[in-house]
Amino acid sequence: MSAYFSLPMYAASSGQRLRLIAGRCRSCGALAYPQRAACTGCGQRAFDEVGLSGRGTIFTYTIIARGGAPAEFDDQQTMTGRIACGIVELEEGPRVIAQFADWEDADLAIGKPVAAVVRRLFDQEGIVRYGAKFVPLREGEGA
Amino acid sequence: MSAVSILAYGAALPRLRLPASEYRNAWGGCAASGLTQKAFCAYDEDPVTLAVAAARLACDRLACDRLGAAEPAFDALYVGATTLPYEEKPSSASIVTALTGRRGVRVVELRGSPQAGLQALVAAAEFCKANPGRTALAIAADAPSAPPDMPYEHALGAAAAAFVLGRGPGVATLGDAAACSLETFGSRFRRLGATGIADLELRTQEDADAVAALAGMEALPRGADVLACGLPPRAGAAAAKRLGAARADAVWPRLGDAGTASAAVALADALDRAAPGQRLLALAVGAGAIGVEVTATGCPEGRRAGPSVADLLGGGTPVDYVAYLRHRRVLSSRLGDTA
Lengths: 143, 339
Hints:
The structure holds two protein chains of two kinds.
Chain A: H1 7-19, E1 21-25, E2 31-32, E3 47-51, E4 55-64, H2 74-80, E5 83-90, E6 95-99, E7 113-124, E8 127-136
Antiparallel strand pairs in A: 1-2, 1-3, 4-5, 4-7, 5-6, 7-8
Chain B: E1 5-12, E2 16-19, H1 21-27, E3 37-39, H2 47-61, E4 76-80, H3 91-99, E5 106-110, H4 116-130, E6 136-142, E7 159-166, E8 172-181, H5 206-215, E9 226-228, H6 233-243, E10 247-248, H7 252-255, H8 261-273, E11 279-285, E12 288-296, H9 309-314, E13 317-318, H10 321-327
Parallel strand pairs in B: 2-13, 4-5, 4-6, 9-10, 9-11
Antiparallel strand pairs in B: 1-7, 1-8, 2-3, 6-7, 8-12, 11-12
Helix pairs in contact in B: 2-3, 5-6
């Protein structure tokens, strides 16, 4: 039986997906999220793991309308309509590509505060992928 | 030996709400008498994601850095849920990985009935008693489902609540617990592989029988100020009377039936409101019953930071019935059995 699913990749990325674990370069201190083999700042290959706060702001966003989503998101789009995704600039610096959750139109604007939550990303081959999405931080609401 | 304390707790509800009026519009009536709305899972939520949200709130209230540097330091995780996505493959491994990078955590899943949430709380307390100095995290999380044409589906909602247990100053102490088991199919059941619960629709009084059986047990503490059960108002009031509690909680009309999480969210709500010294009796019913005494103590700084249960119940976004069916994957031909 063949599978898209890779157990080694799944295991290696679980901390990244579920707790936003980044790599901090031992040479220059730059943060890498997602983690990489080499530092984009200095090219060194030694990192320490560090957890990111999950708090940030919307750097940019887009709406994926009907028919524009990758296959693993087909069902989500059919059932929920539009999918919002974008880039979140975390308060520690890294910019993360992710979906938004629990959003309404008024929540989506560049610079608006968001926070990471764990959600189902997609189901494929009977396996539920959990990972970080970002929810709007509305006035008077914590996260 | 000092009592085991609830060091911190937290609850989580999905954001989406289905008003009871949507059942009246769609079906001509809502079978969940007294329900005003219920909280239910969005397309990308399930008991695992709700469990993580509740546990993060509880751990944040203990001033833990939830995402890395100083991770929550619990030694065991007990999860009570009937609707985790896998029969085999511990979903609790996903939950614990979302909370901490530590590997040396004992993970236990309890299932079988709506009792499983409080069973997780009691089992976590017993872990702490047996292992002085250690802490345990107990989570009740659930999103029960049933076929949409079944009347008992109307009440089914979703929620989670988490409790960090250990020694030391907390928000409450855990007292005696009592439990009973009944061999019955009266309230509800679900066969292996089925996603929705079934009900023989015999209109029996199984839950009342379970409460009566519990009331007859010597170990059960009496005279509580509040019964935290998450039951519908009439059943809750009857249970409170039978168990000698002054009154029952009132979360059900705005939450619905959140399976194992109902009693746990009701307990969190009661703790939100409790004055020091107030005695609570947490009760969960389902083919038997379990009760545990909880006595509120002082509340250290920050232990009620963030949203209260009342805040969560009062918030949310109402949607219509078709949106509800779509989010719950009832209309999905591809993933219709995976909610």
